[in-house]
Amino acid sequence: MGLWQLALRSLANRRLSAGLTVVAIALSVAMLVGVERLRQDARAAFAQTISGTDLVVGARSGGVQLLLYAVFHLGNATNNVSWRSIEAVSALPGVKWLVPLSLGDSHRGYRVVGTTAGFFAHYRHGDGRSLRFAEGRPFGAAPEGLFEAVIGAELAQRLGYRPGQRIVLSHGSFGGDGGPALAEHGDKPFVVTGVLARSGTPVDRAVLVGLEAIEAIHLDWHGGAPIRGLSIAPEHVRKFDLRPKSVTAALVGLERRTEVFRVQRAINGFADEALSAILPGATLHELWGMVGIAERAVLGVSALVVAVGLAGLVAVMVASLGERRRELAILRALGARPLQVFALLALESLLLALAGIALGLGLVYGAAALAGPWLEAALGLRPGLGGPSASEWALLGAVCAASLAASLVPGLRAYRYSLADGMTIRI
Question: Is 80 exceeded by the pLDDT of residue 165?
């Protein structure tokens, strides 16, 4: 009988303890591979928070800071960009489209983003997916759609908003539940016309309105406060020139990606105003490197779980040696060499580890298939169902190597058992 057959029959004879060991290893491997896959998917989703945009333009500042306030709506801009500069950037050779962004107001702690209809046409995320509407439609063009707003999925869910409801914007980017109270633009309410489908991007937590609306609600304001004794009714603001004087940032798309560095240099060297143009993909990777320590910590915890599972393998193999002394002694009596006994124990450990890895991968793929639609709907995250990546193969190889290393303990103990010790009857 070959060594493989002997190992399989030996494990079949101890099917209960072997099965429990396989389940323990499978659960630890499923956690390790699952965390690694979610880590990679989260990194890919983060890197594709905004895709299809070649440049992000704002006032002169650091690249990460510009990305944080323009894309993630975190923090504030060092300065605004004049509308004249925005028009000049839009007219540069090679620029295909430009979407301006105006930040500074909020609604119950959520950012308000003033923009144009081009935002819905050109904003991309993930693998080039565009924004979709779960309900309603985009805000209309001024003057008819001046006080219309589109809200993100997370904001709509948390605040219970639906199309047709009226909301009031606040001046400033703080406030909300638990925050300091802000002055409200209560005399100019907005009507929600649409709710965006969940995208897993900062848009889920934003209120989108037209640029003209941002100008309209601030006509009777000056220096961040309402002008005393002056109040312009909503029906009268349409008579004013509502073209924006400045914006916070802009998203830029080019005719050809090969022109990106030329256009970037032209914007960074703009003579009339100090501007910065960043490549969002490169800056996203830089930002992930700054915040990615948490994912490595989670992966480390998963590795500890695998170590616990392998420790259980060692414990089961060592505990079974006391019951298998006579079995091993008979093998020695039949001519098996100590090295063959050692190989038998190592082979059994390897088989248990391989069975655990196979079952663990099955659990990962099953969980991804079942939870995939929920993850995409709730978090905008698409779990991959493809084969193991290079990093996952490396982890699985490490688990196999660790299982072989774990077999050294019971294997060396079995190697040292003598024929006389195994045949001795102990009282």
Answer: yes
In order of 50, 63, 86, 108, the CA distances from 77 in angstroms are 19, 12, 16, 20
- Strand 148-151 and strand 190-196: the pairing is parallel
Assess contact for 6 and 344: CB atoms under 8 A. yes
DSSP annotation string for 74-121: -S--SS-EEHHHHHHHHTSTTEEEEEEEEEEEEETTEEEEEE-THHHH
**Helix, strand, or coil here: 338?**
helix
Confidence of residue 84 (pLDDT cuts 50, 70, 90): very high
| Helix spans in 142-279 (H) | 153-159, 211-217, 260-268
Query: In the numeric block, which tokens belong to residue 128?
Result: 């080039």
How many CA atoms, within 13 angstroms, populate the side-chain half-sphere of residue 339?
0
Angle value at C-alpha 281, between 278 and 284, nearest 5 degrees: 90
Q: Compute the distance between CA of residue 201 and CA of residue 71 in angstroms, rounded to an integer.
A: 9
The pLDDT of residue 95 is: 94
Chain Cα centroid distance, residue 307: 27
Distances (CA, A) of 229 to 181, 189, 221, 232, 272: 22, 20, 11, 10, 37
Please give the radius of gyration of the chain, using alpha carbons only, rounded to the nearest integer.
Answer: 32
